[in-house]
Amino acid sequence: MATGGNAIRGTRVGAGPMGEQDHGFHADRIAISYWDALGNETVRYFSAGIPDEEIPDTIDSPHSGLPAGRDKQNPPALAKTEPYKTHLAYVKERRTEEEAETLLDDALQQLRERRGQD
């Protein structure tokens, strides 16, 4: 006779004598709805005894990854994203050698002044 593992067929691993009420599944809870800018609703459950100031006003929506708020009419705005820049766009933004030397000289002068004051 071939057997596999030590679990009895048809049982869950880790199932024990405790029922759901012992795990806290029947605790009094309140449902709070959150909406993101795309209109997705997310419902989060909190303990009924929790004070209102401990319930967060915003969360990250699992549907879109955007911030979601409790106000359905005025959800948090979409995050402003910068357009993708290519490497050449960053190269064009680099300072000239003269500007870099001026900035370095200014920084060194400020350091010398600070050290002289100490």
Automatic annotation (TrEMBL):
- The segment annotated Disordered runs over 1-20, 54-84
Gene Ontology BP term (one): positive regulation of DNA-templated transcription
What keywords are assigned to this protein?
A: Transcription, Transcription regulation
- Check the record and name the Pfam families matching this protein: RbpA
Q: Which InterPro entries match?
A: RbpA_sf, RNApol-bd_RbpA
Q: Which GO terms describe its molecular function?
A: bacterial-type RNA polymerase core enzyme binding
The answer to whether keyword Transcription applies is: yes
State how it assembles.
Forms a complex with the RNAP catalytic core and with free principal sigma factors.
Q: Which family does it belong to?
A: Belongs to the RNA polymerase-binding protein RbpA family.
Any idea what job this protein has?
Binds to RNA polymerase (RNAP), stimulating transcription from principal, but not alternative sigma factor promoters.
Q: What is this protein called?
A: RNA polymerase-binding protein RbpA
Organism, per UniProt?
Microbacterium rhizomatis
